[in-house]
Amino acid sequence: MENWLGIALDNTFTIETHYKIHYTTESPVSIEHVIDSLRSLERIIKRTGPFVEKAFEGIEVIDTQVYVSEIQSGSLINDFVVKYVCGGKDNAEKAKELFHTMMNDSGALKTVVTLGVGALMAYGVMQVLPSGQMSKHTEAYNSVVLEAGGDINLSGQKIKEILEGVRDKRSLAKDAVDAMRPAKGDNSSILVEGNSKLTIPSEMVTEAPDEYEPPQPVEKEEKFNDVKVLISASDRDNNDKGWAGIVVGVAETRTKIILSDNLDPRELHGQTKLQANVVVTSRYNKTRKEYQPKLIEITAYH
User: Fold this and answer.
1) Which of 281, 283, 234, 282 lies closest to 259, judged by CA?
2) Which of 210, 119, 127, 212 is nearest to 174 (CA)?
3) Largest Cα span, the chain
4) What's the pLDDT tens digit per position in 271-285?
5) d(CA 162, CA 154)
C-alpha cells in the first residue's frame, strides 16, 4: 500500500509510506557496515519531517517513526516503512483533505521522503569535504535534488532553509558517511526505488570519506598555572604590544604575549624569566595537522 492514513481520538493523524534503497554492491557487505548504515539511515529519515511540512503546507509533523520492512541480501536492499505522526495546526478534516491530495498524486509523499534523504545525505557529505574544495559530483547531485523539489512544491529556497536549519551538522555528516559505507569500495551507486533521478551516483559515494573524522576546532584556549615564561621582548608602556616569548613545555616557539588589564607592564618590563599563570591560544595548522600557539596571555605572576 503506497500511502496510509490513520486518525486518532486526539486528532493527531499518521501518514505512512515506504522508502527503499538498493546498494549496487558486487562484494558482500559486512554486518558491521549494514548495522551502521541502517542506524544512520533511520536517523536521516527521521530528519525528513520538515520536508513533509514544507511540501504539504498545513501539516505539522510531531514525530517520525521508521521501521525495517525487509532486508534483501546480495546487492543490499533496505525497505523502510516511514510513519509521520502529525497534528497541532489542523484538525482531522484538514488531515483527510491533505491525505486525499497526496493520494491523487500517489508518489508525492514517497518523493518527499526520497528527496529529503538525498538532500540530507548530500548536505552531510558537504560538511566533511576539505574546506574550500568544491565537490563537483556532490554539487551536481544537490542540483538534481533542487530540480526534483520543484515538482512537489519544494522550491530550492525551502530546501535550503531546511538544510541550513540543521543544528547538529556534525551528527548529520557522520550519518551520511556511515549510510554510504556499504557502497564504498565497489564503485557502487545507491539506487532509490521509484525515483531513479535521485539515485546517489557512484562518483558522489567515492567522494565521501571512508570514515567520519570530526573537524578540528580552528582555535582553542588552554589555561596553565605556575609555568615558566621566558620573555624575549617587552614594552613598559603597553599591555598588548611589543611583548613576546615562550612558555616552557607548552609554547616553545616565540609567540606574541599580552598582559591582562590588571597587570602593570612597568613592573614586568625588563624581566626575562618568571613563573606565571597563562592562557595560551593555539590555531590548528591543517598542513601539519597540529595546533600551533599564536597568543600567550599572562594573567598573574609571582
Assistant:
1) 234
2) 212
3) 83
4) 999 999 999 999 988
5) 10
pLDDT in tens, 209-268: 888 877 777 889 999 999 999 999 999 999 999 999 999 999 999 999 999 999 999 999
d(CA 162, CA 123): 11
Write the pLDDT tens digit of every residue in 37-82.
Answer: 999 999 999 999 999 889 887 778 889 999 988 887 667 888 898 8
Please choose, from the candidates 64, 59, 51, 62, the residue with its C-alpha nearest in 3D space to the C-alpha of residue 165.
51
Residues 94-128 have pLDDT tens digits of 666 766 666 555 578 888 899 999 999 999 988 88
| The three grid cell numbers given for residue 281, joined into one nine-digit string | 591560544
